[in-house]
Amino acid sequence: MALLAAYGAIWLSVRGQNPYSGPSGAALVELYAFIAVASVAVGFEARRARAGVSGRSSRQQWSLAIPLVAAFLAVYVLIGALRYDGFSYGIMPAAGPLIVVGAAMAGYNAAREDWQLLGVSVAAVAVGVGSAFAGPVGVWGVAGVGLFALLVCRAIVQVWQRRA
Amino acid sequence: MTGADTATRALDPLIHVPARLRIVATLAALPDGDALSFTRLQKMIGLTPGNLITHLRKLEDAGYLSTEKTGNGVASRTSVALSHRGRLALDTYTAALRDLLAGL
Questions:
Q1: What pLDDT does B4 receive?
Q2: Of A52, A56, A58, the CB nearest to B40
Q3: Selected residue of B23, B32, B34 to mutate for chain A interface (largest A Cβ count, 10 A)
Q4: A55, B33 in Cβ contact below 8 A?
Q5: Which of A19, A140, A144, B82 is the most exposed place for a label (fewest CB within 10 A)?
Q6: Residue B42 in contact with residue B52, Cβ under 8 Å?
Q7: Backbone angles phi, psi at A52, to 5 degrees
Q8: Which residues of B touch A49 (CB under 8 A)?
């Protein structure tokens, strides 16, 4: 719900803009606060779950974290370059991370033969690609709703698997 | 000899003890090549340190797990990992248990 609210706030701030001037500062702060809180929560939970565990898999988590952070930063380097050259980059902040980080996650999960998470990663890439065609205003709405639907589907599958 | 007798014989008595079954099952949940610290294992299983050491020693003597101690004094840390033999023994045990219960 927080994800949908964060993307929704940006979509509301850009809806009806003509000419397009980009999301408001408050909406961007809300989105990046959500990303920061989610990252800290995931890191805290992963650390708690891995307490006392040593060996190969504790080193392998870095092989996921490093490409993910690099992929995420690469999107913003590209945005900076496009902005510097005076090109439109409106769809990039919403669609870019989904496509690039989703592709990095897909590669990692394929190597681990985790087919379910591979499916989630590929679906995230598909949401990113689909949202990119919605234009700079629609991209936030499509990406937010698409990601929300993806997370709900994943939660339903997990509940169903636990019951089976 | 019936199928149930064969299955009962295949139930490894070393793993069949509830506390040791929990130890082996907990360690088997880790990916191959990973180890768990003694303190975390103790928290997860809920045994006293002395009781846990006794069970670990029996499993280690059978070659089902390996322990490694690093550091000295208060900084010492003992890690426990399931061996390949231990993983195979648990697979055989679970297969035997499934066979035994299949007739119910």
A1: 58
A2: A52
A3: B34
A4: yes
A5: A19
A6: yes
A7: 85, -5
A8: none
- In chain A, the residue whose alpha carbon lies closest to the alpha carbon of B39 is A52
Chain B residues with CB-CB distance to A53 below 8 A: 30, 34-37, 40
Q: Is A41 exposed, middle or buried (0-12, 13-18, 19+ CB in 10 A)?
A: exposed
Nearest CA in chain A to B38: A52
pLDDT in tens, A64-113: 788 888 888 888 898 889 888 888 777 888 888 889 989 988 988 898 88
Q: Do A90 and A79 touch, CB atoms closer than 8 A?
A: no
Distance of CA A64 to CAs A10, A102, A119, B8, Å?
A: 29, 12, 17, 44
pLDDT tens digit sequence for A74-87: 888 988 898 888 88
Q: Listing from the earlier edge strand, what are the strands of the sheet with B65-70?
A: A53-55, B34-37, B77-82, B65-70
The distance from CA A18 to its chain's CA centroid, rounded to whole angstroms, is 27
In the A/B pair of chains, how many CB contacts fall below 8 A? Answer: 32
Q: What is the mean pLDDT of residues A9-38?
A: 79
